[in-house]
Please model this.
Amino acid sequence: MGNKQEELDPCERLQGYDLIGIMETWWDGSYDWSVGMEGYRLFRKDRQGRREGCVALYVNDQLECMELCLMMDKEPNESLWVRIKGRAGTGDIIVGVCYRSPDQEDRADEALYRQIGAASCSQALVLMGDFNHPNICWRDNTAGHKQSRRFLECVDDNFLLQVIEEPTRRGAMLDLVLTNKEGLVENVKLKGGLGCSDHEMVEFKILRAARRAHSKLATLDFRRADFGLFRDLLGRVPWDTALEGRGAQESWLIFKDHLLQAQERCIPTKRKSGKNARRPAWMKKELLDKLKHKKEAYRGWKM
Model:
């Protein structure tokens, strides 16, 4: 995410999304401390051994959800799948997030297609992702490249509908939203790039009621914190010995572990509820108005 991360949180506050899917996060273990967003549960799949690619899904923490393991294959691919619990009588929704690199090998493609086939058996599926098939003509359902034709076969074999109608990156339709139920996804809009990204953000609405958990959001109550004890606990740690010979990443994990232990002892939590429960103190109306003005200016420039 890099330069996009600082803009993502205010964007969510402005729009109030329940789900946020991200492709090409480029995250690894060093990003554990900075990628969480208050009011969301984060699912992520990082690429082992390198930072390129990677996918993530933020889910409103009031929604009941769980990650799924679909057709676990020896061939790695960058996709994750989450089941969102539906209200009584409506059925659950499976949401998938996928990134397919332009040079992905055929066997990794086939592993992804097996996952898509398994997910398509559900009553309601929404799959979003950057599939990197620029030569597909969705109007005619044709493609000029062998791998793209195989992807179209997968879409057809699983009776999926592709709902994006406009280019999402430099005249090419790389980012797609697929569903197995007509009318499940509507109000699809392109919302401009996030940060310096050259991909369009895609906004859409899932027309299915999800079950919301009854638990309220817990947050740290700094007004009742014992900062004296907090400083004392961290001061007792022999940092020179604890961090001796450690690399930056390992040192950070050791520090974070001590910090969280002290936090648990010294800073109580409280429950937040209400319309603005997920809005931090710095998110003032003036900032929200400026963010809205920025979006409107971008849309006007595009026209």
